Amino acid sequence: MYKNYTNELGVPKRHVNKLLLIMRLTTVILIATIMQVSAAGFAQRITLSKKKVSLKSVFKEIRKQSNYDFIYTDELLQNAKPVDINVKEALLDDVLDKLFQGQPLSYTIEDRTVVLKEKTEISLKGKLALRTIDIRGRVVDSKGLGIPGVTVRIKGEPGGGTTNNNGDFSIAVTSANSILIFSSTGFTTKEVSVNGQTVLNVTLTEAVDELSEVLVVGYGTQKKITVTGAISSVNMADMRTPVASLSNALAGKVAGIISMQSSGEPGYDNSQFTIRGLGTFTGSTSPLIIIDGVQRDDVNSAFGGSFNNIDPEDVASISLLKDASSTAMYGAKGANGVLIITTKRGVAGKPKISLKAETGIAGFTERPEMLDGIQYMQLFNEARTNMGLLPNFSNEQIQKTASGLDPYLYPNVNWIDEVYKDHSTLTNANLNINGGTETVRYYISSSFYNQTGPYKVEKLNGYNPNLNFKRYDFRSNIDVNVTGSTLLQLNIGAMLVNARYPGISAGSLWYQSYATTPVAFPTKYPDGKWAGPTPNGGINPLNAVQNNGYSDEFRPAVQSVFTVTQKLDVLTPGLSSYARFSFDSYGDFNNRRSGVNDNWLAIGRDGNGELMFVQNRIGQQFLGYSQGSDGERIMYLEGNLNYDRTFSNHRIGAMFLYNMRNRLKSTAGDVINAIPFRNQSLAGRITYGYMDKYLLEVNAGYTGSENFQKGSKFGLFPSLSGGWVISNERFFKPLASTFTLLKLRGSYGVVGNDNIGRGDRFPYLTQIGGGSSTGFGLNGMWSGGLTENLIGVENLTWEKSYKGDIGLEIGLFNKLNLIVDGFDERRKNILIMRESISSIVGLEGTPVYANIGEMSNRGMDASIEYNDQIGKVALRVFGNVTYSKNKIIFADEPARKYAYQNKAGFAQNEFLGYVADGYYTSQADIDSRPVQKFGVVKPGDIRYLDQNGDNVIDAYDARRLGKSPFPSWLFGAGFSVAYKKIDLSLFFQGVADVGIMANGSGINGNGAGVNGVGVVPFSGLGQYPNNTMAKVLDRWTIDNPRQDAYYPRLSVGSLSDNNYLSSTHWLKDGSYVRLKQASVGYTLSSERLKKAGFPLLYCYASGQNLLTFSKFKIWDPELGSNGAKYPITRMATFGVRAQF
Amino acid sequence: MSGLGCKYLDVAPDNLLTSDMLWETRANAEGYLNQIYGRIGIPDDDYTMLGASDETSCSIAGVNVRQLTSGNWNAQSNYWYYWGQNYAGIRQSIVFEQNIDKMSESIIGADLKKQYKAEALFLRAWFYWKLLRQYGPFVKITEQLSLNEDYNKYPRAPFNDCVAYINDLLDRAATNLPATWSSSSNYGRANKASCLAVKSQLTLLAASPLWNGNPMFAGLKNHDGTALAPSQYDVNKWWAAANAAKAVIDLPGYRLFTNLDEGDSQFDPYLSFRNLFLTNWNAEILFSTNMANSWQWGHEIRCAPNPGGYNMQNATQNIVDAFYMRNGRTIDDPLSQYVETGFVQFDDPANWGKSKDGLNRGYIKGNSNMYANREARFYVSIQYNGKPVLPAPTQDDRNFFSSDANKDGTGRAEFYYSGKSGVGVNNNGDITGYDVLKNVSPASNIRTNSAVYRPFIHLRLAEMYLNYAEALNEVEPNNPDVLKYVNLVRQRGGLPDLQTVYPSSVGNQAEMRKRILQERQVELAFEGDRYFTLIRRLMMGDTKVQTIYRMNTITNDGNQGFAFADFNKRTLLQTRVWNDKMYLFPIAQSDIDKNASLVQNPGW
Known about the structure:
The structure holds two protein chains of two kinds.
Chain A: H1 18-23, E1 45-53, H2 55-66, E2 69-71, H3 74-77, E3 83-91, H4 92-100, E4 105-110, E5 113-118, E6 133-140, E7 151-154, E8 160-162, E9 168-173, E10 179-183, E11 190-193, E12 199-203, E13 214-217, E14 220-223, E15 231-233, H5 246-250, E16 257-260, E17 272-275, E18 288-291, E19 294-295, E20 315-321, H6 324-327, E21 338-343, E22 349-364, H7 373-386, H8 395-403, H9 415-419, E23 424-436, E24 440-452, E25 468-483, E26 486-502, H10 506-515, H11 541-547, E27 549-567, E28 575-594, E29 599-605, E30 611-617, E31 624-647, E32 650-665, H12 671-674, E33 677-690, E34 694-705, E35 714-725, E36 739-753, E37 767-776, E38 781-790, E39 799-812, E40 816-833, E41 849-870, E42 873-890, E43 912-913, E44 916-919, H13 923-928, E45 931-932, E46 942-944, E47 952-953, E48 959-960, E49 969-979, E50 982-992, E51 995-997, E52 1067-1069, E53 1072-1084, H14 1087-1091, E54 1096-1110, E55 1129-1139
Chain B: H1 26-38, H2 47-50, E1 56-58, H3 64-69, H4 83-100, H5 110-135, H6 159-175, H7 192-207, H8 236-249, H9 269-278, E2 285-289, H10 296-303, E3 313-315, H11 317-322, H12 354-357, H13 376-381, E4 382-384, H14 395-399, E5 434-436, E6 456-460, H15 461-475, H16 480-492, H17 498-501, H18 509-523, H19 529-536, H20 543-546, E7 547-550, E8 571-575, H21 589-594
Antiparallel strand pairs in B: 1-3, 2-6, 4-5, 7-8
Helix pairs in contact in B: 1-4, 4-5, 5-6, 5-7, 6-7, 7-8, 7-15, 8-15, 15-16, 15-18
């Protein structure tokens, strides 16, 4: 079975109903375990009299009389002999014993069901010794919980028993030296010597059972041992975090993902993540997201991230498809890798109710520090003096501000502290129930997530504008066995994000909190008047978040899948098929109430000492109203034929499928986007395995996209992969006790990407749309223009990714697992906008596409996991690392004069800038060096190196600087230990080889102000010399001309100044390691209470992003080059899990 | 989901507007033509307006124009990269011309077709002229180029060929266009006057020293040795320029605008000159862009003082000094009665503007004597320290621009150190002591960000008068037309005729040249002409033009405000960097990288 970490109190799931596992052969493969149960207490009496009849007909009769079901396959009965039977009022087990005498069959009874099995090889040789010694005991897991259903055997002897629901067993042995064997699916089999004891308590450790695990692969599942592609699966136990967004929880949890979360704003904080880095330099680099078999993301769609709203509690597994072999079936959608999310399903049995509730607080990982009012005034004066200007603030003004006696006329405001609380709250809960019978099973779940906002606002004028993010998730996954061979499955997931945001966007608010000077005005005046600057003089950030109104947004999403699976063994054994239909619907609605209030500025005090005001803004009495909405629907149809059969040593599998997809936007806004987005594909897979030793697999996708011209719509994407399980070789047997697994695999193939940059479509058609307008007539009436928005080029098609992968999997002592993959990707025919077309053609600004870009991306990923039980301590240590280095090979650039400015030959988005060489030391130093053309320089300004040797530093001396904003390395590592009832786990995650251009160029005013505020000292227009980070205190001055000062000579700066150009001076190492998760838990698992009807309880405290280690200390390094935005959040939560 | 099978993906957007369908309806074809018109930029904040010549300086350090004048400029800077944009317009005009004929006459009548085609020709000529002015010789494109062309086969054409080609385009366009538009709905479209006006600009450029035998360009040759600049001076080019200007002047239906055109009974030079730019249409306009809600607000707010405006477009002392006294004399003339010190004791008795605005728009009591008794165009063009703010209709709006001590309802602009626009309180305060005021409307209210409509005038008749006078003076200094047309311009400005104040200039080619150029500097100030006049006349290297003065905005007035006498001290603002290579913009490095046959301009 695949690792099925489900819903049990933080403990890996092992209450696996074996009966069901057999039933669900399509998804779960069970190793035959030997089980002979001495079932006692059957009440039914059986009366039967038959001669030479088939077992099958006898079973039918018994079923009628006893209401016991029989589970078997016809294959099993092929070798059964006809039987004679004549019993009257006999006990069921007596009848069964008689029936099975001499048959090659055995049986077990569970839950009023008789399960047939092949008889074990252990023969009943010799006569049985007398079993006189009674042994009793309990089998528990690493957390001390009893494990039900563990098979207990006596070594070398037939017979045995299983543990009951509490994990208790009792068995009689023949000798005080007997050895008992304890085995259960999902655990490492353990042998325990009786050694004269009569009470044995045994702890089983969770098995990392390579042989029986199943992996979710493209359009199906495969036995892990037979997988030849590069596929990793996420350990769902690691996904238990209070983080709302699934993608944010993924970073570092699995080898192959590189992700960055660029904002912490609830509802808008999804990570941008890639599988194995960047394979293309245009269009999308996001992987394809498949949820329950259906594509659920769309690049360039507002709803692309909606999968993030699935509660991780409802997720059964997450698989990462990384190489060509595993993704080829996705054809033109698979080049960026595929992420497959599967939600949980019901398991037959009594209803199992799981409840999780947690609550906690959230704050910011890093709170940027700005200059206070006094420092601001002093440094601003210094900057002006340095520029030959007079100081702006008088000593008197500075002293009055410092005294704090009149904070209304001489304010000194820390805007970040005024606007943002230290912490906000979050609460979330999940309730799920699963159970059912063999014919109908259900998994239903509901969850709720609530996070409050960080703004220091209150209910005023009838509304509270604070951010409040609420999410409601419902899920219902139903399985119905209509007949023995027909399974219907219906998944319905409904998600609703219902959130309030203040009337100013989070980004603008951060920008303003950075920008606003501490001395311009207070937050408000004692009589309740809100302070505000003159028009075009910035804003009062606290006033903006409190009084600008609010917007209520809701984003409903419905995702549904209906699947019919039909076994077709009647046609030929091993054949099955399914058909799947899905529709999704997404919406995004918001009701905005925008407000403007009165703003006042105190200009002095009158004779009585009362403040005198000017009104800088006249407000409106009522909030305005506006609304917006957006939506789309997606339909998907798939038919799938699957064949899987073993002929002695040969395992042969084949799969063939057809699918089509149609996505339609409700508010497309233009003709091009109103046309449905369609895809259609055929895909197939053939697998062959010899004794699970030699494996071969061919995958191919033949996909079509509406985006391309007739004749170029379809493309074939084949891949070939193979594997060699060395540990299954005969010659390897001597090492088998050490190496539980040694496997080598490799793959090569082609995958496609039909995603065109900018969201353009139909690039083969010249498209006409709105262009620049003009005006005619007496009053300048607008006359709309039409222009070519895209120049069509014939025969465009997908980009193709040629991917090779070689992987090694090692299992040691059943405790340590190591997987290492190396990959090499060459993306060709990248659909890029032409850059080398001469301007004289006259296509400036009009895209022309061509399949000519080329990029290479290579690297490795690896994961390691170690599980052990040392005495009473259960230990799990794990880690993974992903490395990818990309290089643009061809980007259709003009033949540049200096190759160091090219894109080709460098990484995607590699920073372009100057190479700094310290600060000028003196005028003589300035005179002796090449002239820098970026304005007048003085000692203390940044020196740059001449790259082209022309003795002038100008735009030609900017070069690629070797770092990009995208990390080459991402790693995660952690451990968990459990001792008795306490468990502790820590998880660290980090990135390396990533740059931050910390000159402020990433801080965008978006029209509300200049770029670079906060970093570039005192930048800004008009009466608006912005505040600056406190880091500016560490600066070069005439009195202290340090070369190692962080800031150069102070000036009233702008991004185009000599000192604030992008350069190695500002290119900082953005690597970090953070304690991403830490949790400590306690199991209140009193069996006594459970019997009395109380639930199993587990409580825990956990923290997110508690510590961050980085050389870059100015803002959270994960934010990248833009520090003026909603930071990454840090959380501390307390939670309880209960199971009824 | 319907339609299984291969047709499923054939969603080829049949309802999509493709290039063929453009030519199926008149509205679409007109839309395409509108788009070409849309490529005519409104240069209200480009280098010509914002500080590349001695008229203005931008108050914001670090902007491109400040980079340019401080010498941080190379072929990779791409400042005002209009090369590609102009070629895009050229291509589209060719596409339009090629396709309009295909349209049936039932959709678009023969006359209209002819007109639109002529407009497209004009537009193509316009873009080529813009290329020639900024970059010099261009690559001549006569048909659509394919995407996979070998661009290396397209070198630049010699200057004379370029001029001849544009002239030819304009001649062809002019043939099929009326001299004036009979329907007001056509205002803003090119007509015959527009074509001839561009011809005048073009021929004047060709006749001017920059291109008429300039030895500086002797080395400007294609790789095959073809010289791109004419090596010999050709006096006939001045004749061509004079004739081209005269052709516009002789067109019926055009005259200099005066306030009498607005129904006033009394001539008012201030209103005549100011409202020439602010009327929705008038008979002086030869070519304009008539687009509402586009450039107007930006211009108003750039020009307006703090706190309502951005105070960016600072006029220089250099241009202020160029304006005449009311008696028609220059301020350095001992007879001019110009006074540099002290303050005016009385309001301007001329009461210019009062008939329309109810307010005296001349100088007022308390203004510096520097600003007293200047010509009307000065008060239209220059926002000086103490001059009431114009785009502020009510007393309350005007008070908004005043410090508490100055709130008297007049809204005097405060450019002194501690004033509302001063550098003492603003990070980007006014650096010269002046803002541009031309083309700013009193009907706008910049405090509430509202700006009224008026067309952007690219070419007007007064410029043609000055073109004519300038060219004619080079070949026939004694021709009475030289004086006549300079005087016509002066008269509208309320100035006495030139010969009455400077009789020695009559017939004196060198002195007259100087007078005409000064007239041009004043009349066309802040309209984008000064930069190109200095360029084509090879005057940009003059240190006088590169040494920029201002008022003393940087000395603390000690809260004396308008009474601070030291404010009116001439102070050096900038010594700009000039290099003769800057006479032409560099061809962008990326364009040379894409087309190896493009030779770079000299010195770059």
